[in-house]
Every structure is written in structure tokens, then in C-alpha cells.
């Protein structure tokens, strides 16, 4: 058994599982992946030994358990990467924390109407509430790229936790056909071209498990 284990859900559906998985992959951290199929009759039973919230993702590091995607990314950066997964400058770091937290806690209509589904394709007509949220994500992406993006193609130039938190949205925008500004579209493409994002989506598309109960809106 490895010192570091990440419990995730179906790659096809679990947007939050993708965030710390991508961080560990991008920083080449050795970890064991434990995958539990979500929304089955026995899911809670299988998650119980690992997850206090009965949700994924969960990180197990020696005797420490961390749950909730953003908290896990923070922990990995602090304890394993020496703080390297946030931008170095306080101004960029403050913005990166804010846009990561906003992605984590906001956008209920996006999460409800366009849930993560690697197999989805084609445009699903967005409601007005969803269009407003897409416009806000577009503004975050274009504004951060313009203000902070000079050292690379990611949201704050070089890859950071902010990209991990925004990568599932790029997969959803691509799958459901969001109309974005040129700057936002270029950033979405950067995320979609990331080899680990591609790997996650490819593996998600190969998964066969159906959802046996009504699909939870926050998947
Ligand atoms: N705020 C949590 C949300 C976790 C969450 O909702 N995970 C979903 C999958 S992406 C889950 O485990 N759902 C199982 C359930 O609701 O039974 C995070 O960021 O990790």
C-alpha cells in the first residue's frame, strides 16, 4: 500500500475527483488510485471506510485523511509540494485562491444543467441563468489570462491549483458546446490539450457503469 492514496469516483461523472488527480499527475507525485463507482446501491458502504462525507474525492496520507477537492489540493501543495502549486506572488496567489474558491462554491446552474459527462456531445440549450454563469466563467478566464498569464498558457501563466479547479468546467464547456470569447476559448483549449486532462476524459469515455439512481446534481 502506498503512503498516498486518492479515492475518486467514476471519471466519466466525478468532476471534483478530477481536480486533485490532475494536480498529482501534473507534479508527478506517486500515488495509489482507489476508484469507487458512484450512485450504486452499495456506494455508501464502499465509501464509508474512507470518506467522512461519503463523497469523493478523499486523500489518505499516512494517518491523515483530507476530503473535499479544494482542501485536498491545498494539502498536497502544502505538505507534498512545498507550496509550489499556488502562484508565488501574493497578488497572483490571492487571485488564484479566489477564482478556485469561486469555482468550488458557485455556479449551481452549470453544475445542474451541464454536469460532468465525458460522453456528452452536442449543444444543450442553456437557460438564462446558465448563460449568466457561463459569462462569469468567461470573464474569470479572460481577465486572469490578460492580467496574469504572461509566463505560460495556464490561468496564472504556469500550471497551478486554479487550473485543476477549472479543468472540469473546460471538459463540460467542450462537451455541451459553450460559446466563449476568444481569450476564454484559447484557455479552454489549453486545458483540453493537457495530456492528463485528455487521459481523464479518454478513461471516462471508456467507463461502462450506468447510473443506477437519479443522477445527483452536484456530481
Ligand atoms: N465539495 C465536495 C463535493 C464532492 C462531491 O459532491 N462529490 C460527488 C462526486 S463528484 C460525490 O461523491 N457524490 C456522491 C454522492 O453524492 O452520493 C468536493 O469539492 O470534493
Question: Features of this protein?
Answer:
single chain; 219 residues; alpha+beta; Glutaredoxin; Glutathione S-transferase Yfyf (Class Pi), Chain A, domain 2; 2 domains; four-stranded mixed β-sheet; 9 helices; 4 strands; 51% helix; 8% strand; globular; disordered C terminus; binds glutathione
Strands of the largest sheet, in order across it? 2-1-3-4
- N-to-C series of helices and strands: EHEHEEHHHHHHH
SS-based class: alpha+beta
The level 1 CATH classification of the largest domain is Mainly Alpha
Structure in a nutshell:
InterPro entries: Glutathione-S-Trfase_C_sf, Glutathione_S-Trfase_N, Thioredoxin-like_sf. The protein is α+β, with helices and mostly antiparallel strands.
Describe this structure as you would to a colleague.
With 219 residues, the protein is α+β, with helices and mostly antiparallel strands. The protein has 2 domains: 4-84, Glutaredoxin (3-Layer(aba) Sandwich); 90-201, Glutathione S-transferase Yfyf (Class Pi), Chain A, domain 2, CATH 1.20.1050.10. The protein is built from 9 helices and 4 strands. The protein has helices spanning 15-26, 43-47, 69-80, 90-105, 108-113, 128-148, 161-176, 182-193, 195-206, and strands spanning 4-8, 32-35, 58-61, 64-67. The protein has a 4-stranded mixed β-sheet, with helices on one face. Strand 3 (58-61) and strand 4 (64-67) form a beta hairpin. The longest helix has 21 residues, at 128-148. The chain is globular and about 45 Å long. The chain starts with a strand and ends in a 13-residue tail after the last helix. The model is unreliable at 212-219 (pLDDT under 50). The structure holds glutathione (GSH). The site of glutathione has 15 residues, from helix 1.
Amino acid at each position: 500500500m502506498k503512503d498516498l492514496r486518492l479515492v475518486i469516483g467514476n471519471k466519466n461523472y466525478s468532476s471534483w475527483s478530477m481536480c486533485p488527480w490532475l494536480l498529482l499527475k501534473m507534479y508527478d507525485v506517486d500515488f495509489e488510485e482507489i476508484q469507487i463507482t458512484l450512485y450504486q446501491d452499495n456506494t455508501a458502504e464502499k465509501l464509508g471506510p474512507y470518506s467522512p462525507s461519503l463523497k469523493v474525492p478523499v486523500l489518505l496520507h499516512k494517518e491523515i485523511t483530507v476530503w473535499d477537492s479544494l482542501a485536498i489540493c491545498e494539502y498536497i501543495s502544502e505538505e507534498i509540494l512545498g507550496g509550489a502549486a499556488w502562484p508565488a506572488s501574493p497578488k497572483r496567489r490571492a487571485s488564484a485562491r479566489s477564482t478556485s474558491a469561486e469555482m468550488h462554491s458557485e455556479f449551481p446552474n452549470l453544475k445542474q444543467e451541464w454536469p460532468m459527462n465525458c460522453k456528452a456531445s452536442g449543444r444543450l440549450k442553456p437557460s438564462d441563468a446558465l448563460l449568466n454563469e457561463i459569462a462569469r466563467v468567461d470573464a474569470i478566464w479572460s481577465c486572469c489570462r490578460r492580467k496574469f498569464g504572461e509566463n505560460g498558457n495556464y490561468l496564472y501563466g504556469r500550471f497551478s491549483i486554479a487550473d485543476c479547479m477549472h479543468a472540469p468546467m473546460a471538459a463540460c464547456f467542450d462537451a455541451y458546446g459553450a460559446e466563449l470569447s476568444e481569450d476564454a476559448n484559447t484557455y479552454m483549449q489549453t486545458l483540453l490539450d493537457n495530456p492528463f486532462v485528455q487521459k481523464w476524459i479518454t478513461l471516462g469515455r471508456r467507463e461502462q457503469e450506468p447510473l443506477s439512481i437519479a443522477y445527483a446534481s452536484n456530481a
